[in-house]
Specification:
Bound molecules: phenylalanine
CATH class of the largest domain: Alpha Beta
CATH topology of the largest domain: BirA Bifunctional Protein, domain 2
Number of helices: 11
Largest sheet: 7 strands, mixed
Order of helices and strands: HHHHHEEHEHEEHEEEHEHH
CATH superfamily of the largest domain: Bira Bifunctional Protein, Domain 2
CATH architecture of the largest domain: 2-Layer Sandwich
Strand order of the largest sheet: 1-4-5-9-8-7-6
Structural class: alpha+beta
Number of strands: 9
Helix content: 25-40%
Number of domains: 2
């Protein structure tokens, strides 16, 4: 009996010190301890020779030993299965990682930020206003009284519930809001979305983006307007770009002019973007109409100002050669992804 217990203690030690070493050694272990002719079985058959009063104690020792032998084997099997699942080989640190998809800025935002940044360097600060406007800020205050024919220049979306409400047709409404609350000197840039009731096509959309500028102070002249805008296009498109002004009409400026730049697509040699003229229009501008200043209690004898408004999509088209306006709002990631890395 004493001998048997010593034997079991030895086996226990053997089991505890056995280390897993591949499927073969695992099988050898199983046969040696747990097989039909294995150690556990043969120890159990020793029960017969154990005196009756020690049977209980010996049985307990045996059961514990059996459990130890089995648990060892089961654990072993489990770890082997796990490592097979995850590939028992060492990880290959040289493999390329999973790419992390980084978001990109929308080209309209990129160009808008750039416009704001350039004018920011000239001392213009950003002003914003609501997209749902009232008639006063979008039209009347801008020297466009009711029934003024120039209201037809912009196809307006009116809001049914209240005929006084509309979706702003230009960011000039922000000029009005700023002049309402601020006194000169005023130097602001107003980026934002505007709406016009147009059929959607490659060249027209029912919403688009504008950036408006306004500068009101003493002695502001058309020369200031010209130089400011010239600085802007050179910063935006490069030093070699030329500008030209064409007389135009806007109710809120007098005199008014539209500004063209040499076509960035064909560099002035003629293409379908510039309709083979070598020039493309990028903005409307002019000296703030005295009526408009007076509408806001600004003395038009003392103060003068200039204003301009440009379409962000147009600048974007010339910068990135995007020829279809619909691309901007379709949210096609194949289009949007191309602007990765741009500022
Ligand atoms: N608001 C004009 C438009 O939407 C642009 C403009 C702004 C013209 C300021 C002159 C001065 O077409």
């Amino acid at each position: 009996m004493e001998q048997l217990l010593q034997q079991i203690a030895q086996y226990r030690q053997e089991i505890e010190s056995t280390v897993a070493n591949g499927a073969e050694s695992m099988e050898a272990y199983r046969i040696r301890f747990l097989g039909t002719k294995g150690i556990v079985k043969s120890l159990f058959s020793e029960m017969r020779h154990v005196p009756a009063d020690l049977k209980k104690e010996f049985g307990q020792v045996l059961n514990e030993f059996k459990q130890l032998a089995e648990t060892k084997y089961e654990n072993w099997k489990q770890t082997a299965a796990l490592s097979e699942e995850s590939g028992s080989e060492k990880p290959d640190w040289t493999l390329p990682g999973q790419p992390v998809a980084v978001g990109t800025r929308h080209p309209i935002s990129l160009v808008k930020n750039q416009i704001v940044h350039i004018f920011g360097r000239l001392g213009f600060s950003v002003a914003e206003g609501p997209e749902i406007e009232d008639d006063w800020h979008n039209f009347t205050a801008l020297n466009l009284p009711e029934n003024h024919p120039a209201r037809d220049m912009q196809d307006t979306f009116y809001i049914h519930q209240n005929p006084d409400w509309l979706l702003r047709t230009h960011t000039s409404s922000v000029q009005a809001r700023v002049m309402e609350t601020q006194k000169p000197p005023i130097r602001i840039i107003c980026p934002g979305r505007v709406y016009r009731n147009e059929t959607i096509s490659a060249r027209a959309h029912c919403f688009f983006h504008q950036t408006e500028g306004l500068y009101v102070d003493e002695n502001v002249s058309f020369a200031d307007l010209k130089q400011t805008l010239y600085f802007f296009v050179q910063e935006m498109f490069g030093q070699e770009v030329k500008i030209r002004f064409r007389p135009s009409y806007f109710p809120f400026t007098e005199p008014s002019a539209e500004m063209d730049i040499t076509c960035r697509i064909c560099n002035g040699t003629g293409c379908n973007v510039c309709k083979h003229t070598g020039w493309v229009e990028i903005l409307g501008s002019g000296m703030v109409h005295p009526n408009m200043l007076e509408n806001f209690g600004i003395d038009s004898n003392k103060y003068t100002g200039f204003a301009f408004g440009m379409g962000v999509e147009r600048i974007c088209q010339l910068k990135y050669r995007i020829n279809d306006l619909r691309l901007y709002s379709q949210n096609d990631v194949r289009f949007l992804k191309q602007f990765t890395g741009a500022r």
